[in-house]
Amino acid sequence: MEQKSANAIVSLRNIYVKFDSEVILNHIDLDIKDKEFVTILGPSGCGKTTTLRIIGGFLNPDDGDVYFEGKRINKLPPHKRNVNTVFQKYSLFPHLNVFDNVAFGLKLKKTPKDEIKKKVRQMLAIVDLKGYEKRSVAKLSGGQQQRVAIARALVCDPKIVLLDEPLGALDLKLRKNMQQELKEIQQKTKTTFIYVTHDQEEALTMSDTVVVMNNGNIEQIGTPTDIYNEPVNAFVADFIGEANIINGTMIDDCRVKILGQELECVDKGFGKNTPVDIVIRPEDIEVVKPEDGQLKGTVTDTVFKGVHYEMTVMCNNCQLLIHSTVSQEIGTEIGMRIIPFNIQIMNKMFPTANNEFTATVVSADKEYNCIKIDIEGNIIEIENQYFDEGTKLFIVLPPDGLHIAGDGNGDLDDVYIESVIWKGEYNEIILESDERKWLMKSDQDEQVATYCPISFDFSKAVFTIADKEESD
Amino acid sequence: MKSRKPSIPYLIWMVIFTLIPLVTIVIYAFTDKQGNFSFEPFKNAFFYSNVFFRSLWIAFLSCLICILLAYPMAYIMSRCKERTQNLFVMLITIPMWMNFLLRIYAWVILLQNNGPIDMALSLLGINANLMGNAGTVVLGMVYEFLPFMILPIYTVMSKIDNNLIEAAQDLGSNSVQIFKKVIFPLSVPGIISGITMVFVPAASTFLVAQYLGGTEDIMIGDIIDKIFWTDQNTGSAISLILMVAILILLIIMNIFGDEEAIS
């Protein structure tokens, strides 16, 4: 059995969940510290609610272990766990009034009547619902129902409160108030809160720790400041706040080449001449005179945003977003400076620059100079290439050698769009088919977490005969 | 304010087919054959008070048995996959596609002396007279009205949000407590509409007792059916008493049901 970290109240180890053929959680590990406000953040369909349901006991993972204070609790049903949940749609009992809703858990624990009364009163005072005991829950506003749901979970004195996007249905102003209240309640009651949301701002303002999830994996765990200032990859950078994400090359430790210029940075250990992703926050680009700038560009758009102006600047064919309190006219040439600390270097999300894979020739036609190859069970014809039948080919396909088949007749069907990142010039899209991931360049914006057919353009590919021993 | 115009056709309908007949019944019940005001019809109606109370009793029994059979059925149905649920609903409604009388005849053929069930029982050495007693009447009524009990309970149960069950689990309820504290109280409205849909027609039904029951087992509906040919005033009076009695019972039940749902 693996060791749990010392002060973790909940530990997930190697959790794997599959619905039908779709992987929801892909072997995740997570430790949640006692008395912390932890937010699990991610786009819809990333597996965050599933993670919460596993901790609550509503779902048994297909593989992996759940530990609560060091004890394995996989088989423990929800009603025996010292965990209470605030559900997404509140799920208050419509046949009970406010008092009886809040008292529900205490009554089941056979708490003496006057103690129930006292505790419910106290809890309703904490959530600011004094005097609402006899009201019907159906007649409360969304915010009030929400607070009843929170009181109902907290009154049972759980070790952990799970909150599944509890503020999703409220309007902006109420949401802001509730965010503050929740944080206060958490500090007052000294309870561990595990909060699920897709709202990055909510996550940054409320949490002690943020867990960023995507596509069934945990991308990064850290404090809100860490996550914002030092995202580990382009997905996190893109998901949290606004960011310029561009391609760069790490020349050496602390030297990076972006947009045709070599700049100083503070990151080390990426090796020499390594392609990397760079994040620069819009507020970290300083606008200066063209001759003083490390980079030069032309303003193409400027929008007033209240606190600042948001400018779009074309620099070396790449769009950069700048937040500045001073506006520049469209068409002006400006210089830009970025201090080394504000250039965040990240490893590329896709391990190689091109798609590299092996495939077997299933039929060959010498006369017409064409072959057919097998990719994941799909037979694809390639013109102007000839190799003998049965040859194993090593194929290098550049990112612009595949595209989404708009007409619906693709070479591969139902390919999952895992991430779409705007690189200033084009979208870098990572796709996932049954057996592998694909890197694609596109001018189009695609919807993440959807499925689409893709087709290949093998005229851009390079074919070599794969070594017999290496391929399998 | 919302326009009331769209409700006009329904109002006309109600006046012609509900209000006027009701008023007519009331007038008939309080007049004698010559059309003079009189309590004579009610005096005559008292002659049938035994039948009247037995009808209510048989209706009550049938209704109770319907609840006992329908509730678990509805519960099981609501826990099934959606496709299975639809199949169940269809199977339950299929008998209703057939004529009411035909279904009663079918029971007569099944239960009569030297009918298939009687024969099978006599092979086992049991000599039972299956026809012509109150039990058979109740059986016929339960068979007739069971779908009207299952469907409303099932409808209410299938609408109970699964999140509520999870919330109850989350707060510490085991399956028995989930049933007692959440599922049952939330299904009470279904039971009440089921009772309304079974007890009311069962109390006033006719023909079932005539075909399945003995001479003793005649129901108040049959009496009204018979008597109306010769004495419309007494028939109206009995109908009126039956209506008021059912109304009172339903009001009592609704009050009881509301309390049940709140406590």
Structural class of chain B: mainly alpha
The CATH architecture of chain B would be Orthogonal Bundle
Instruction: Report the major sheet of chain A.
Output: 6 strands, mixed
* Beta-strand percent range of chain A: 35-45%
In the CATH hierarchy, the third-tier topology of the largest domain in chain A is known as: Rossmann fold
- Overall average residue pLDDT of chain B: 87
pLDDT < 50 runs, ≥5 residues of chain B: none
Strand proportion of chain B, as a percent range, falls in under 5%
| Total strands of chain B | 0
Distance between the termini of chain B: 37 Å
- State the fourth-level CATH superfamily of chain B: MetI-like
Q: What name goes with the CATH superfamily of the largest domain in chain A?
A: P-loop containing nucleotide triphosphate hydrolases
**What's the CATH C level of the largest domain in chain A?**
Alpha Beta
Throw out a few tags for this protein:
heterodimer, A: alpha+beta, Rossmann fold, 3 domains, five-stranded antiparallel beta sheet, globular, B: MetI-like fold
Can you put this structure into words, describing what you see?
The complex is a heterodimer of chains A (472) and B (263). Chain A contains eight helices and 30 strands. With 472 residues, chain A is an alpha+beta fold. Chain A folds into three domains: 222 residues, Rossmann fold (3-Layer(aba) Sandwich), CATH 3.40.50.300; 103 residues, Nucleic acid-binding proteins (OB fold (Dihydrolipoamide Acetyltransferase, E2P)); 111 residues, no CATH class. In chain A, strands 6-7-8-3-9-10 form a six-stranded mixed β-sheet, with helices on both faces. In chain A, α2 packs parallel to α4. Chain A is globular and about 90 Å long. With 263 residues, chain B is mainly α. Chain B has a single domain, classed as Orthogonal Bundle (MetI-like fold). Chain B has twelve helices and no strands. Chain B starts with 7 loop residues before the first helix and ends with a helix. The model of chain B has no long low-confidence stretch (mean pLDDT 87). Chains A and B meet through β6 and α2 of A and α8 and α9 of B.
